[in-house]
Amino acid sequence: CHRLLGHDEL
Amino acid sequence: MNIFRLGGDLAHLLAIIILLLKIWTTRSCAGISGKSQILFALTFTARYLDLFTNFVSVYNSVMKVVYLAAAYATLYLMYVKFKATYDHNHDTFRLEFLILPAAGLALIINHEFSIIEVMWTFSIYLEAVAILPQLFMVSKTGEAESITSHYLFALGSYRALYIVNWVYRYYSEGFYDMIATLAGVVQTVLYCDFFYLYITKVLKGKKLQLPA
């Protein structure tokens, strides 16, 4: 899975 | 952002508001598990360490602050202001049985072995089981006030909606996060028997009575 820098979900 | 995730966040916010209102208006935290509330505060603290380092959107930052503030406000109400109404005798779940395995697993199974990522993973695993002391307490007392069952229904719905969000994001943008998704499935499954009781009883105006 491509990882976002950090998480964008709560 | 999609409607499933927005719906999930709003269900989560609703649950937190219902709980605060229940404690504040009845000036009592009877039937509420302080231990679950400790786990929720721990979950948000570990998950939102990036509050000042990883800006996603105003919405994201505002909601993180609201969740953190509400979690600690609930702890204050339960353990300080209305301490006398806290039901110690029925809130006996051993927190170390949840915190230690979540921490251990987070060190082993994570996306990246960095402080912030391991803490995020810990918060994901902990949130999945954070409701257990509350469900355990309801099973011990054998019943729950209807306001408490509305709180639990909203709280259970939030992660169920997040699962729909993850399915939607997978098909619409190829995004997936196996750790969050699997933990979210576990978290939602834990509510299943409660959902059944809520729909078959509480929605018919009956009190939530667990079969003794």
Automatic annotation (TrEMBL), chain B:
It is found in: Endoplasmic reticulum membrane. GO terms for molecular function: ER retention sequence binding. GO terms for cellular component: endoplasmic reticulum membrane. GO terms for biological process: protein retention in ER lumen; protein transport; vesicle-mediated transport. Pfam families: ER_lumen_recept (PF00810). Keywords: Endoplasmic reticulum, ER-Golgi transport, Membrane, Protein transport, Receptor, Transmembrane, Transmembrane helix, Transport. PROSITE patterns: ER_LUMEN_RECEPTOR_2. Belongs to the ERD2 family. This is ER lumen protein-retaining receptor. It comes from Hyalella azteca (Amphipod).
